[in-house]
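hey can u check if this looks right to u? its 172 residues, i copy pasted from the old doc so theres a chance i mangled smth
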Amino acid sequence: MTVTIKECTRENLQLLQEISVETFNDTFKDQNSPENMQAYLERAFNANQLEKELSNTSSEFYFILFNEEIAGYLKVNRNDAQSENESLEIERIYIRSKYQRKGLGKHLFNKAMEIAIKQKIKMIWLGVWEKNENAIDFYEKMGFVQTGAHSFHMGDEEQIDFIMTKTLTEPS
């Protein structure tokens, strides 16, 4: 088993769009109406939106490859790409269904940690849907704690995302 992480650039836009739609749909389609899913997918993952995100110098995207096949991706934000300037936001860790439970999420989490440490960032945060128990369990194992909540709109439905944070300590 070989795991590789490589930067995703604007040249990878179509592939990023395909993986974004696939992974989001696979994760959330059973808990949401088809209409709300379609509305969200069209808004969040259209080519113009992803091009804008890829062009933002305060956001970074990374693909994770499992045996040379793209298995998922990570998106992190800092500075003006997020609401908390002194921290790093993990906006997305998405793994394709057939690659889940292989430890790939942890590899992407470690990449986010590496970015934060390199930039001397003291806190990592993320929003996770209150009903996504697998993700909540994963983040708790990674040392995150719930520190708040905010609204997230899936089509015409308001949902609640837990805000989870992890404070980074200086190595001794």
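The helical segments are 13-28, 34-44, 47-55, 104-118, 133-141.
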